[in-house]
Amino acid sequence: MELIVSPTSPFARKVQILAQEQGLADDITLRKLHPIENADELAAINPLGRVPALRTDNGQLVVDSSVICAWLDNLAVSRGKATLLGEGPSACLAIQQLQALADGIMESAFLMVMERGRPPALQSGFWQERRQAAVTRTLDYLESGDVELMPTDLHLGSIALACALGYLDFRHDDMQWRAGRPLLTAWFSHWEARESFLATQPPG
Ligand SMILES: N[C@@H](CCC(=O)N[C@@H](CS)C(=O)NCC(=O)O)C(=O)O
Protein backbone atom coordinates (compact mmCIF):
# COMPACT_ATOMS: atom_id res chain seq x y z
CA MET A 1 0.00 0.00 0.00
CA GLU A 2 1.04 3.59 -0.55
CA LEU A 3 1.07 6.21 2.18
CA ILE A 4 1.15 9.81 1.02
CA VAL A 5 3.03 11.95 3.51
CA SER A 6 4.80 15.22 3.96
CA PRO A 7 7.90 14.83 6.16
CA THR A 8 6.84 17.80 8.31
CA SER A 9 3.22 16.73 8.90
CA PRO A 10 2.54 15.62 12.49
CA PHE A 11 -0.57 13.76 11.29
CA ALA A 12 1.51 11.79 8.79
CA ARG A 13 4.06 11.10 11.53
CA LYS A 14 1.32 9.65 13.73
CA VAL A 15 0.39 7.16 11.02
CA GLN A 16 4.03 6.25 10.35
CA ILE A 17 4.71 5.64 14.05
CA LEU A 18 1.63 3.47 14.45
CA ALA A 19 2.63 1.49 11.35
CA GLN A 20 6.15 0.96 12.70
CA GLU A 21 4.98 -0.01 16.17
CA GLN A 22 2.54 -2.51 14.64
CA GLY A 23 5.20 -4.06 12.41
CA LEU A 24 3.65 -2.80 9.17
CA ALA A 25 6.45 -0.57 7.89
CA ASP A 26 7.51 -3.10 5.25
CA ASP A 27 3.97 -3.20 3.84
CA ILE A 28 4.01 0.53 3.15
CA THR A 29 5.64 2.54 0.39
CA LEU A 30 6.01 6.18 1.36
CA ARG A 31 5.31 8.85 -1.23
CA LYS A 32 6.20 12.40 -0.32
CA LEU A 33 3.92 15.16 -1.56
CA HIS A 34 3.87 18.72 -0.29
CA PRO A 35 0.25 19.94 0.18
CA ILE A 36 1.00 23.31 -1.44
CA GLU A 37 3.88 22.63 -3.84
CA ASN A 38 2.34 19.37 -5.13
CA ALA A 39 -1.28 20.50 -4.72
CA ASP A 40 -2.61 19.13 -8.03
CA GLU A 41 -0.94 15.75 -7.65
CA LEU A 42 -2.21 15.45 -4.08
CA ALA A 43 -5.75 16.55 -4.97
CA ALA A 44 -5.85 13.86 -7.66
CA ILE A 45 -5.32 11.29 -4.90
CA ASN A 46 -7.12 12.89 -1.96
CA PRO A 47 -9.94 15.30 -2.83
CA LEU A 48 -9.33 17.06 0.49
CA GLY A 49 -5.83 17.93 -0.71
CA ARG A 50 -4.28 16.84 2.58
CA VAL A 51 -1.69 14.48 3.89
CA PRO A 52 -1.71 11.81 5.11
CA ALA A 53 -3.66 9.70 2.65
CA LEU A 54 -3.39 5.99 2.10
CA ARG A 55 -4.04 3.89 -0.98
CA THR A 56 -4.59 0.25 -0.15
CA ASP A 57 -3.28 -2.54 -2.35
CA ASN A 58 -6.68 -2.85 -3.98
CA GLY A 59 -6.74 0.87 -4.74
CA GLN A 60 -9.08 2.01 -1.98
CA LEU A 61 -8.50 5.53 -0.67
CA VAL A 62 -8.30 6.02 3.10
CA VAL A 63 -8.16 9.58 4.43
CA ASP A 64 -7.76 11.24 7.79
CA SER A 65 -4.96 10.06 10.05
CA SER A 66 -7.35 8.65 12.65
CA VAL A 67 -9.13 6.50 10.05
CA ILE A 68 -5.84 5.37 8.52
CA CYS A 69 -4.51 4.45 11.98
CA ALA A 70 -7.67 2.50 12.82
CA TRP A 71 -7.45 0.63 9.53
CA LEU A 72 -3.74 -0.19 9.94
CA ASP A 73 -4.28 -1.26 13.54
CA ASN A 74 -7.07 -3.57 12.42
CA LEU A 75 -4.80 -5.09 9.82
CA ALA A 76 -2.11 -5.66 12.46
CA VAL A 77 -4.65 -7.26 14.82
CA SER A 78 -5.73 -9.61 12.02
CA ARG A 79 -2.07 -10.69 11.92
CA GLY A 80 -1.95 -11.42 15.63
CA LYS A 81 -0.78 -8.09 17.12
CA ALA A 82 -2.43 -6.50 20.16
CA THR A 83 -4.55 -3.48 19.31
CA LEU A 84 -3.20 0.02 20.00
CA LEU A 85 -6.75 1.43 20.07
CA GLY A 86 -7.74 -0.07 23.43
CA GLU A 87 -9.74 -3.08 24.56
CA GLY A 88 -13.22 -2.40 25.96
CA PRO A 89 -15.32 0.78 26.03
CA SER A 90 -13.49 2.77 28.71
CA ALA A 91 -9.93 2.12 27.45
CA CYS A 92 -11.11 2.77 23.90
CA LEU A 93 -12.75 6.05 24.87
CA ALA A 94 -9.71 7.24 26.85
CA ILE A 95 -7.41 6.53 23.91
CA GLN A 96 -9.70 8.16 21.34
CA GLN A 97 -10.16 11.16 23.63
CA LEU A 98 -6.42 11.63 24.02
CA GLN A 99 -6.01 11.30 20.26
CA ALA A 100 -8.69 13.98 19.71
CA LEU A 101 -7.00 16.39 22.12
CA ALA A 102 -3.60 15.78 20.56
CA ASP A 103 -5.00 16.13 17.02
CA GLY A 104 -6.59 19.42 18.10
CA ILE A 105 -3.20 20.70 19.27
CA MET A 106 -1.65 19.65 15.97
CA GLU A 107 -4.39 21.30 13.94
CA SER A 108 -4.17 24.62 15.79
CA ALA A 109 -0.37 24.57 15.70
CA PHE A 110 -0.34 23.71 11.98
CA LEU A 111 -2.81 26.48 11.12
CA MET A 112 -0.65 28.95 13.04
CA VAL A 113 2.30 27.99 10.85
CA MET A 114 0.17 28.46 7.71
CA GLU A 115 -1.03 31.83 8.95
CA ARG A 116 2.43 33.16 9.65
CA GLY A 117 3.47 32.11 6.14
CA ARG A 118 1.01 34.60 4.64
CA PRO A 119 1.98 38.19 3.79
CA PRO A 120 2.10 40.15 7.08
CA ALA A 121 -0.74 42.46 6.04
CA LEU A 122 -3.05 39.47 5.60
CA GLN A 123 -2.22 37.69 8.82
CA SER A 124 -4.93 37.59 11.44
CA GLY A 125 -3.88 38.36 15.01
CA PHE A 126 -7.33 37.23 16.15
CA TRP A 127 -6.91 33.71 14.75
CA GLN A 128 -3.30 33.39 15.84
CA GLU A 129 -4.24 34.28 19.42
CA ARG A 130 -7.28 32.01 19.37
CA ARG A 131 -5.23 29.04 18.15
CA GLN A 132 -2.39 29.74 20.55
CA ALA A 133 -4.92 29.89 23.41
CA ALA A 134 -6.41 26.54 22.35
CA VAL A 135 -2.96 24.92 22.40
CA THR A 136 -2.08 26.46 25.78
CA ARG A 137 -5.39 25.46 27.39
CA THR A 138 -5.18 21.90 26.09
CA LEU A 139 -1.59 21.49 27.32
CA ASP A 140 -2.66 22.81 30.74
CA TYR A 141 -5.60 20.43 30.77
CA LEU A 142 -3.29 17.50 30.05
CA GLU A 143 -0.84 18.73 32.68
CA SER A 144 -3.62 18.91 35.28
CA GLY A 145 -3.75 15.13 35.50
CA ASP A 146 -7.40 14.79 34.45
CA VAL A 147 -6.19 12.53 31.67
CA GLU A 148 -4.10 9.60 32.84
CA LEU A 149 -0.70 9.63 31.16
CA MET A 150 1.63 6.72 31.82
CA PRO A 151 5.20 7.11 30.54
CA THR A 152 5.32 3.58 29.22
CA ASP A 153 1.92 3.63 27.56
CA LEU A 154 1.96 2.73 23.90
CA HIS A 155 -1.35 3.31 22.15
CA LEU A 156 -2.84 5.60 19.53
CA GLY A 157 -3.50 8.35 22.09
CA SER A 158 0.08 8.44 23.34
CA ILE A 159 1.41 8.27 19.77
CA ALA A 160 -0.75 11.27 18.83
CA LEU A 161 0.33 13.26 21.87
CA ALA A 162 4.01 12.54 21.20
CA CYS A 163 3.52 13.82 17.63
CA ALA A 164 1.75 16.96 18.88
CA LEU A 165 4.53 17.79 21.37
CA GLY A 166 7.17 16.95 18.79
CA TYR A 167 5.47 19.35 16.37
CA LEU A 168 5.51 22.14 18.97
CA ASP A 169 9.26 21.57 19.36
CA PHE A 170 9.69 21.60 15.59
CA ARG A 171 7.55 24.63 14.66
CA HIS A 172 6.77 26.54 17.86
CA ASP A 173 9.95 26.63 19.88
CA ASP A 174 8.90 30.11 21.03
CA MET A 175 5.94 28.62 22.93
CA GLN A 176 8.32 26.91 25.40
CA TRP A 177 5.60 24.35 26.11
CA ARG A 178 7.70 22.56 28.77
CA ALA A 179 7.78 25.63 31.04
CA GLY A 180 5.57 24.97 34.08
CA ARG A 181 4.55 21.54 32.78
CA PRO A 182 6.79 18.96 34.51
CA LEU A 183 4.35 16.09 34.04
CA LEU A 184 4.15 16.47 30.27
CA THR A 185 7.89 17.12 30.04
CA ALA A 186 8.72 13.92 31.91
CA TRP A 187 6.16 11.95 29.93
CA PHE A 188 7.55 13.20 26.61
CA SER A 189 11.17 12.41 27.56
CA HIS A 190 10.36 8.69 27.24
CA TRP A 191 8.97 9.27 23.78
CA GLU A 192 11.95 11.29 22.61
CA ALA A 193 14.13 8.19 22.94
CA ARG A 194 11.73 5.78 21.27
CA GLU A 195 12.94 4.20 18.02
CA SER A 196 9.77 4.86 16.01
CA PHE A 197 9.79 8.48 17.14
CA LEU A 198 13.46 8.99 16.25
CA ALA A 199 12.96 7.31 12.86
CA THR A 200 10.19 9.76 11.91
CA GLN A 201 11.81 13.07 12.92
CA PRO A 202 10.91 15.99 10.67
CA PRO A 203 13.83 17.29 8.61
CA GLY A 204 16.31 19.32 10.69
N1 LIG B 1 -7.68 15.69 10.16
C1 LIG B 1 -6.63 15.48 9.20
C2 LIG B 1 -5.68 16.66 9.19
C3 LIG B 1 -4.59 16.54 8.13
C4 LIG B 1 -3.92 17.88 7.85
O1 LIG B 1 -4.37 18.94 8.29
N2 LIG B 1 -2.83 17.81 7.10
C5 LIG B 1 -2.14 19.02 6.71
C6 LIG B 1 -0.62 18.83 6.84
S1 LIG B 1 -0.15 18.69 8.52
C7 LIG B 1 -2.44 19.30 5.26
O2 LIG B 1 -2.20 18.47 4.41
N3 LIG B 1 -2.99 20.49 4.98
C8 LIG B 1 -3.24 20.96 3.66
C9 LIG B 1 -4.56 21.67 3.56
O3 LIG B 1 -5.34 21.63 4.53
O4 LIG B 1 -4.81 22.24 2.52
C10 LIG B 1 -5.89 14.18 9.54
O5 LIG B 1 -5.92 13.79 10.72
O6 LIG B 1 -5.35 13.54 8.63
TrEMBL record:
Alphabetized GO MF terms:
transferase activity
All residue ranges annotated as the GST N-terminal domain in the record: 1-80
Keywords, A to Z, come to: Transferase
Task: Enumerate the SUPFAM superfamilies for this protein.
Answer: GST C-terminal domain-like, Thioredoxin-like
Q: Which GO terms describe its cellular component?
A: cytoplasm
What is this protein's record name? Glutathione S-transferase
UniProt organism field? Alcanivorax sediminis
InterPro entries for the chain = Glutathione-S-Trfase_C_sf (IPR036282), Glutathione_S-Trfase_N (IPR004045), GST_Omega/HSP26 (IPR050983), Thioredoxin-like_sf (IPR036249)
Q: Give the top-rank taxon of the lineage listed in the UniProt record for this protein.
A: Bacteria
